[in-house]
Structure formats: C-alpha cells, structure tokens
Task: structure prediction
Amino acid sequence: MSTVLLVEDYASDEMLTLRALRNLGVTVKVDVARDGAEALDYLFCQGAYAERPDEKPKFVMLDLNLPRLGGLEVLSRIRADPRTTLLPVVILSSSDHETDALQGYVNGANSYVCKPVGFGEFEAAVQELALYWLTLNNGPASGDAGQAFALPAGSGLTAAPHDHHAGRSSLASQYDPPAPIAA
Result:
C-alpha cells in the first residue's frame, strides 16, 4: 500500500484532505505531520519517529505556513539529503502569491497548487494530485527515493537539482522546418 505524508497544521484542511483521499477509491495510507520539524523527524526516522521503518512515502503534500519550521525550509532540507532528494514534494498552500510559488520551485518542489476555497474544488484538486502521484507518475519505485535511485559511487553523477537543459541544444534548434508551400 502506498503512503502519502501530509504536512498540514490547519485541522480543517487536514480533515478535508483526508476526506478527499478517502473518497478517492484508491487504497492509500496517509501519515500526518502537523509542523515542519515533525515532518523532517518522520522522513528521517528521528525523534518521535526513531523506531519507524525507513520507508519513504510515495509523495509529500506540504503546506508552506507551518509552525516550528516553515515549508520552504522543510523542502530545502528534503532536497539537501541524498535519502530524500528525489522524493516528490507537492506544495499545497493557501497562498496564491507568485513569489511563494517561485520560491517553492527554486527550492525543488515538483508542483505548487493553491488550495481552492470551496470543498468540491478542494476535493477535486487533492484527488487529481493523488491520482497523478500514486498511479500515473513513474517515479522512484515504491516511493523509496533515496534507495531506488542510489547513484553509483564515483559515477560523477549527482542527484542535486540542476539545469536539465545545460549543455544541450533544444529540440527546436535541431528541427529543420519544411520549406514554405508556394501558393
């Protein structure tokens, strides 16, 4: 069974997210962390989670405005650790500020979704996210990002975020368009 880590401090948003996932029709276990520090303890099996098996969730749904440690700092720490650098993280925030979304992507978010206000729209958004990350996305096997994609020592490869287009020409520059058709 796939596990999702929901990092959410607002009780009503937690309840709505859990209800949406329950109504999804896909078997999923949802673990909840109510602040940023608890999320990191969970992911790295430390503190109150020291005895938890080191099985990574399929993806993380991360709020930005969290007590103790904010969502962007949580995301930075997830990306900085080789055990979680490839773990999919979706920011689900009430903020529709472009700067928040930009900071999320700069820090390595896989997606940024503004929480819809109405329950129907909120439920649909959560369900679409879950279906994508649980059934369609072809990511790290069993959500075990740190182990499924362990890079060979001395390979010269890194799992750190990088510019995927560096050193490559774009497809557009390799494409020779057909000659115009004469009228």
Summary: The helical segments are 11-22, 36-43, 71-80, 98-106, 119-136, 145-148, 171-174. Residues 142-152, 154-176 have pLDDT under 50 and may be disordered.
